[in-house]
Design goal:
mainly beta
Amino acid sequence: MIQRPQSFKFEGAWLFGYGIGLHLIGGQPPHANRDVIDPKADHISFACDCGLEDVEALLIERKVKYVKAHVQEGGILVTQLFMHDPDGNMVELCNCDLLPG
């Protein structure tokens, strides 16, 4: 488990290992819906160390719908890119590994 940003206004926990994160959200989060990209929906998170700017440029080039979000925690800015995979699962790519563990 890694430290989850305290700036979030909802309950949850972040599990992280081997570059893959599982973000558990407390309460009744919305389920993934292919028509809506909601960062608070169930999703799997992957740490991306290849440069999120390059990933975002590729998403734009390939016309993949996505939502970009930022979280600031203790002076560290985390960038998140949310999208659906071809099967409709919500996926997050982030530089979450910058957060203290």
